[in-house]
Amino acid sequence: MLATARLSQDHATASRQLGSAAMESLATVMRCQRGETVYEQGDRSEYWYRVTSGLARKCALTPEGRRRIIEFSLPGDFFGFSARDAHACAVEAVIEGTTVTRYPRRQLELLADGDPQLQRLIRDAAFQGIARLQARNVILGPTTALEKVFCFIADMVERLSHETTAAVVLPMTRYDIADYLSLSVETVSRSLTRLRHSGAISLLDGRRVRILNEQRLSG
Amino acid sequence: MLATARLSQDHATASRQLGSAAMESLATVMRCQRGETVYEQGDRSEYWYRVTSGLARKCALTPEGRRRIIEFSLPGDFFGFSARDAHACAVEAVIEGTTVTRYPRRQLELLADGDPQLQRLIRDAAFQGIARLQARNVILGPTTALEKVFCFIADMVERLSHETTAAVVLPMTRYDIADYLSLSVETVSRSLTRLRHSGAISLLDGRRVRILNEQRLSG
DNA sequence: CGCGAAGTTGAGAGAGGTCAACTCCGGTGG
DNA sequence: CCACCGGAGTTGACCTCTCTCAACTTCGCG
User: Fold this and answer.
1) B75: three-class secondary structure by DSSP
2) Which region holds residue A97: left if phi is over 0, alpha if psi is between -120 and 50, else beta?
3) Quick check: B56 and B33 in contact, CB under 8 A?
4) Residue B119 and residue A119: Cβ atoms within 8 Å?
5) What is the spatial distance, in angstroms and rounded to an integer, between the CA atom of A89 and the C1' atom of C3?
6) Are B55 and B111 in contact (CB under 8 A)?
7) Gap from A181 CA to C6 C1', Å
8) What CA–CA distance (Å, rounded) separates B109 from A149?
């Protein structure tokens, strides 16, 4: 589980580098309010996106009306890739003032046709998307709620601070975490208090969190 | 849930098309025995792969020693993309005589630099990989075991036969299905019998399966 | 101050895991 | 040809973990 939490280690560094100047000339910046929709499920996939600040969540609605969060996108992360012409999931801004850069897909593809460096940027972004999804796929298995929550925290700390021991502020609510881990809010809350009591993490004011001891999951 | 089972609808058609002649000239074909390893976790990611016949599974081992199947790759599917230089998961052949075509990554990238069509092929393969992982991510949530199993069967029938109502032979064991859906074998087995009794599916000899009625999940 | 959203904690119920027994089937060897 | 074996699959009984429902606290904001 510790290994899986590390799957996303290299993303940030690689994807934070800016694209070429030509690429950025195609960009449009969107500034979103808390909860605002970047695109809806079913929208035509005419753009690729990248979070430049804040946090975005990719959501799917189940037929029973439950929300499932497929992934969180942090600054530097690309999203919106689709093999079909319609998006399978919606994407929303999680926190106030999240900024998202939008690139017109067709034009970017044309641009990439003659620009090997840009090609690789896109390819790497897609591969990193695969790695992120794969990591979640591993975490989401039949691990206990305690392990899921701990892995989630560890992953977030690392993606947000680029260190494993720093204290970070979780940008999302317990409800978001619950929908991401496929747990109920209550179970997320209980797991966090148990992790705090057992000394695995420290939790200052509900959002400020720090990894203390990876061994102490048992409590 | 029915919608999610359809996420993978377009893959097969798009990815079955052959790559360019130049691309195929770099290819090496591997013929694998049942259970044989294509690559191990931690192997350097120097190749990209594509299943040409049979079935492959991408596995991760949890720290507790449980196996988690991240995805099944059917003929036409690419796999082995990695944003890092080492593979995060192992890949094994599920059935005897599975053939896998292997492309040297660096050479293929160089080739793609001057070949926009090949670029798009690679890009689309990566995007389809994202779509597959995303679909699994949705299914794996807090749905009941019955729904997970039904979605899995529906997805497999569609990917294997390109129709929704055909009878197909499941190429993998109950254990594989269990590790893929994060359920125990017993629960998979029980769910299948319940689905059969309720009239949602027909199950002839344990492996031959057909979707009968999408509404009858309740039984 | 008061309101609603976020978060925590408790008690009871239901779904799935675990353990175990048993059947079915294909292969192997006497 | 048949006995034996092991893996795959099914079914049952029990137990644990998480969900649900509910009450309550805390926080942020008008």
Assistant:
1) coil
2) left
3) no
4) yes
5) 34
6) no
7) 18
8) 38
